[in-house]
Amino acid sequence: MPAGTKTNQVSNPKSQAPLALILFGPPGSGKGTQAKLLVQSLGVPQISTGDMLREHIRQGNAVGTKVEAKMRAGILVKDDVVNRLVEQRLAFADAARGFILDGYPRTRAQAETLCAMLAHRAAQAVVIHLVVDYNVIIARLTGRRQCPVCGTLYNVTSKPPKVPGVCDLDGAALVIRDDDREEVIRERLDAYEKQTRPLIDFYRESGKKLFDVDASHEAPEAVCRTILALIR
Predict the structure, then answer these.
(1) Could you list the pLDDT tens digit for every one of the 232 residues in the chain?
(2) Out of 24, 43, 53, 62, which residue is the most buried by the measure of CB atoms under 10 Å away?
(3) What pLDDT score was predicted for residue 80?
(4) Which pLDDT score is estimated for 158?
(5) What are phi and psi of 193, to 5 degrees?
(6) Cα(152)–Cα(140) distance, rounded to whole angstroms?
(7) Which residues are catalytic?
(8) Domain residue spans in the chain?
(9) Are strands 19-24 and 98-102 parallel, antiparallel or unpaired?
């Protein structure tokens, strides 16, 4: 199906059911960027499993120790660990009106667990599939830099900091995330093709509202406007 093709329409945008906006796409497709832009427009929290796992690693706790080696190698963390983190996060009060899932689910087992979570909350699932060429992705991620203090992301070509290598917000030295090294990126793309991409078919077959959005070349703000138009 061509990128940008609508597979369903959101029939009742004024529904009182919580909105569960699920962002799909390979690593580097812009899920995190879109989640942050959509948070500003929709007023619901972003739930990023990658961010949660990296925070556990930073804290050096039991979860972080368990998943650190896998993440450095670009290997998916076990379903039960990620499912538990998401379930705990959805119990927070700020997620009662809805939420944006960034990087979850990534496997069929996670998707099935999420379906049960959403049914329990009577949440309306809408899936956004960000379609991006893999050559574009590799160029994006190898140029990405992150502030270790505030988490702000930069790119040496498309979104550089005002001072090279330094965060605009707090002056911290920017770093390359371990999972943004090219060899790890290729491992992550391979894992995505094998385990996560098939979930697009899973959601289509289950009758969930799903939209393909071309995110290869448009500015993030333009992609966000397209998503908002689709879900509204």
Answers:
(1) 444 444 443 433 445 789 999 999 998 899 989 999 999 999 999 999 988 998 999 899 988 888 888 888 778 889 999 999 999 999 999 999 999 999 899 889 999 999 999 999 999 999 999 999 988 898 888 899 999 999 898 999 888 999 999 999 999 999 998 888 888 888 889 888 888 889 999 999 988 899 999 999 899 999 999 999 998 8
(2) 24
(3) 93
(4) 83
(5) -60, -40
(6) 15
(7) 31, 106, 144, 177, 188
(8) 19-133+183-231
(9) parallel
Under DSSP, is residue 226 helix (H, G, I), strand (E, B) or coil?
Answer: helix
Rounded alpha-carbon distances, angstroms, from residue 93 to 16, 96, 142, 199: 16, 6, 37, 28
What letter would DSSP give residue 172? P
Taking residue 231's Cβ as centre, other Cβ atoms within 10 Å add up to 19
Structure tokens at 232: 């509204």
Task: Give the Cα separation of 148 and 162 in Å (integer).
Answer: 17
Question: Side-chain half-sphere of 34: how many Cα atoms within 13 Å?
Answer: 31
Which CATH fold topology does 19-133+183-231 show?
Rossmann fold (3.40.50)
CA torsion, ordered 103, 76, 160, 164, to nearest 10 deg:
150
Whether 126 contacts 10, CB under 8 Å: yes
Q: How far is CA 223 from CA 35, 87, 127, 131, 227, in A?
A: 11, 29, 15, 11, 6
Helix H or strand E encompassing 102:
strand 98-102
CB 129 within 8 A of CB 24: yes
